[in-house]
Amino acid sequence: MDTYKTILTKLEIRQFDTKRVPAEVKLKVLEAARATGTGMNRQEWRFILVQSKDSIKKLAEDSSSGGWVAGANFAVMILTDPTLGFHQIDAGRAAQDMQLAAWDQGVASGIFTGFREEKLRKDFEIPSNLKPTICLGFGYPTKKILGKKDRMPSTELAFLDKYSNKFDPKKLT
Ligand SMILES: Cc1cc2nc3c(=O)[nH]c(=O)nc-3n(C[C@H](O)[C@H](O)[C@H](O)COP(=O)(O)O)c2cc1C
């Protein structure tokens, strides 16, 4: 799939098939994260790839907004250094790159950010200097995804040259 198509078709998916995602696809997802740039190239982030059934179950229990991850084939937790002003940007960029790399391989994913942090820290032995910022669940979609994105039009979201000029694609030079 070309990059533009991958971006335009990718949806958040929270229901997964039981089919196993091969190790090489997991590796591609992790490589996509590793290849992503961080602020000042700090690479402060760390990733926990969660794949055992038991750990996936724990992850679902330790989340306040991602219980659906219980049905995922694997998950990736992004830990970042909260003392860096850009740590959430770093996490967001890695998350998106992982989701797009997975989607390109036919693997769907969903993000969640609500954690029962104390329990999560204990269960996954997260060091105190790192914060669980984002978690992603991955798996094959249960059915062919025909979803449509619910997005505002660019004429409302974007402007040309200054904020008072509403975006109009016909005015692009
Ligand atoms: C910063 C951020 C936090 C999110 N947190 C959660 C979450 O905790 N749980 C969840 O199920 N979805 C979460 N989402 C997913 C959004 O609900 C999703 O991106 C939005 O509904 C658009 O989905 P679509 O791309 O399939 O249209 C989050 C998304 C973002 C960007």
Describe this structure in words.
The chain has 173 residues and is α+β, with helices and mostly antiparallel strands. The chain has six helices and four strands. It has helices at residues 3-9, 23-35, 53-61, 87-104, 117-124, 154-157, and strands spanning 46-50, 74-80, 108-112, 131-139. A four-stranded antiparallel β-sheet has the order 1-2-4-3, with helices on both faces. The chain is globular. The protein starts with a helix and ends in a 16-residue tail after the last helix. Bound molecules: flavin mononucleotide. Residues 11-12, 14, 65-66, 110-114, 149-150 line the site of flavin mononucleotide.
Order of the strands making up the biggest sheet: 1-2-4-3
- Gross morphology is globular
What is the arithmetic mean of pLDDT?
A: 96
Residue stretches low in confidence (pLDDT < 50, at least 5 long) are none
How much of the sequence lies in strands comes to 15-25%
H and E string:
HHEHEHEHEH
Q: Using only CA atoms, what is the Rg? A: 18 Å
Helical fraction equals 25-40%
Summed up, what is this model?
This protein has 173 residues and is of the alpha+beta class.
